């Protein structure tokens, strides 16, 4: 019989159950110590949007220059 389809032994099942119980005990369900206000949330969202959109805007702004450089090198 293949080792892959062997039934797990009782000790292995107990070990897995013990591991699952230990993992659950590390979860913290307390409320946060400091509440984040709307100003901080808005600032964080703006910074996140700028960090994503600024490089894309830079590339799109310079597309005509990239095209001209590509045409000059290919001829």
Automatic annotation (TrEMBL):
<keyword id="KW-0472">Membrane</keyword>
<keyword id="KW-0809">Transit peptide</keyword>
<dbReference type="InterPro" id="IPR036548">
    <property type="entry name" value="Cyt_c_oxidase_su8_sf"/>
</dbReference>
<keyword id="KW-0496">Mitochondrion</keyword>
<dbReference type="Pfam" id="PF02285">
    <property type="entry name" value="COX8"/>
</dbReference>
<dbReference type="GO" id="GO:0005743">
    <property type="term" value="C:mitochondrial inner membrane"/>
</dbReference>
<dbReference type="GO" id="GO:0006123">
    <property type="term" value="P:mitochondrial electron transport, cytochrome c to oxygen"/>
</dbReference>
<feature type="transmembrane region" description="Helical">
    <location>
        <begin position="39"/>
        <end position="59"/>
    </location>
</feature>
<keyword id="KW-0812">Transmembrane</keyword>
<dbReference type="GO" id="GO:0045277">
    <property type="term" value="C:respiratory chain complex IV"/>
</dbReference>
<keyword id="KW-0999">Mitochondrion inner membrane</keyword>
<comment type="similarity">
    <text>Belongs to the cytochrome c oxidase VIII family.</text>
</comment>
<dbReference type="InterPro" id="IPR003205">
    <property type="entry name" value="Cyt_c_oxidase_su8"/>
</dbReference>
<protein>
    <submittedName>
        <fullName>Uncharacterized protein</fullName>
    </submittedName>
</protein>
<comment type="pathway">
    <text>Energy metabolism; oxidative phosphorylation.</text>
</comment>
<keyword id="KW-1133">Transmembrane helix</keyword>
């Amino acid at each position: 019989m293949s080792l892959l389809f062997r039934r797990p032994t009782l000790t292995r099942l107990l070990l897995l159950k013990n591991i699952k119980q230990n993992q659950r005990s590390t979860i913290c369900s307390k409320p946060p110590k400091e509440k984040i206000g709307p100003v901080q949330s808005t600032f964080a969202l703006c910074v996140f949007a700028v960090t994503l959109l600024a490089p894309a805007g830079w590339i799109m702004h310079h597309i005509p220059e990239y095209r001209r450089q590509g045409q000059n090198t290919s001829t």
